Amino acid sequence: MPTRAQATAVKERVAEVEQRVAEVERAVAERTSPARGPEVASRVGIALGIAITICFVTGLISHWIQHPPGWFYWPANPPWLYRLTQGLHVVSGVMAIPLLLVKLWSVFPKLVERPVIGSPLRLLERGSIAVLVGSIIFQLVTGLFNTAQFYPWKFFFTTTHYAMAYVALGALAVHLAVKLPIVREALSRPIDDAKSKEKQGISRRAMLSVAGVSAAAAGFVFAGQSVPWLKNLSVLAPRSGNGPQGLPVNRTAAAAGVHDRAMDPGYRLTVSAGGRTRAFSRAELLALPQTTAILPIACVEGWSVSATWTGVRLRDLVAAVHPGAGGDVRFTSLEGGGLYRVTVLPQRHAVDAQTLVALALNGSTLDLDHGYPCRLITPTRPGVLQTKWLSEIEVLSA
């Protein structure tokens, strides 16, 4: 058994250690930038939450257009609607990157403080932070790579990105529920108080300005691939609008392996409607009444370009085979395979006056990489569903 003197010595030693720890913590706190704390984290977190929410909602829209649930409705007009939603999806995701970095910087001291686990509430908080940060980083990195069509992973991007969006949103909801009292208190205080002004380092207001300017700059250097008047500022966007006939190309004819079939003089487009079938040569398609429409082609990567398309209205082409036939329309490409070799166009899009089987682009014959001998172009649909190198069109039963 230790003597009373030994016990007293131990207590004094423990008290001395605790005092030194407290002094170190005070010294660290004094050296910590005043911008690190809930005042900045809460305000940046609100902006980050808005960006993530916009990204989530517009991402759902894009996914549902490509894989529509039975209840989903997407209008055929205005023709620029998908261009807007997918542009917002990519730009909001890009703007979230600097906001996330500032958010993590501002809360880093809290992330590494002891105890690591602590109470059940702290465990829930730490767990939600880990899932939230991990899922958001995953979404932003993979989404950014997708804009450049760079896939250094083995999983299928579309389904994985879609599933992780729900994980990120769920983790965000849990995190907000846990941190709401702290956020409300931090927002009620002034950004810079007397105590924070005494510390050396960047001020809270300056850090918020850095976050705002960085997010805006990130958005501007990407937005030009969707917003024409910002094109010259779009220095980091992977699509500038360059390509045959002024349009970018995601999938070339060589990559699709369609060159010989597309250039075959014996090419025919088979159209089936109401139990009747008719095969059209390109010359016969050109002999039908031609319609010109200015429509954007917008891709899931976020880029979009308006162009002048000329061709046969789909509803007129169907009527030439079987007047009165209606329903969704299935399109098949000359491609031998691929996820989007076959697409289905809802009836409301099929009967729209601007939905064309396009034969010309910007006043000249459709380039092979843009779908020669003919392709589908329709308002407010993703580029992957605007089937190129058409071989068959079939009106499905209404």
What's the short version?
This protein has about 400 residues and is of the alpha+beta class. The chain has twelve helices and ten strands.
What does this structure look like?
By secondary structure, the protein is of the alpha+beta class. Helix content is 51%, strand content 14%. The strands form two sheets. The protein has a five-stranded mixed beta sheet with strand order 2-1-10-5-6. Strands 3, 4, 7, 8 and 9 form a five-stranded antiparallel beta sheet that branches. A hairpin with a 2-residue loop joins strand 7 (356-361) and strand 8. The termini are far apart. The chain crosses the membrane at residues 44-66, 86-108, 129-151, 163-187, 208-230. Residues 266-396 form the Oxidoreductase molybdopterin-binding domain. This is Molybdopterin-dependent oxidoreductase. InterPro entries: OxRdtase_Mopterin-bd_dom (IPR000572), OxRdtase_Mopterin-bd_sf (IPR036374).
> Nearest-angstrom radius of gyration?
29 Å
- Work out the number of β strands: 10
Query: Beta-strand percentage?
Result: 5-15%
Helix content, binned percent? 40-55%
Number of helices: 12
General shape: elongated
The CA-CA distance between the termini, in Å, is: 92 Å
List keywords for this structure.
alpha+beta; 10 strands; elongated; 398 residues; five-stranded mixed sheet; 12 helices; single chain
Describe the protein's topology.
Elements: H1 4-31, H2 38-66, H3 81-112, H4 120-147, H5 157-188, H6 194-198, H7 204-223, H8 253-256, H9 259-263, E1 269-273, E2 276-280, H10 282-287, E3 291-298, E4 304-313, H11 314-321, E5 329-333, E6 342-345, H12 347-350, E7 356-361, E8 364-365, E9 375-377, E10 390-395
Parallel strand pairs: 1-10
Antiparallel strand pairs: 1-2, 3-4, 4-7, 5-6, 5-10, 7-8, 7-9
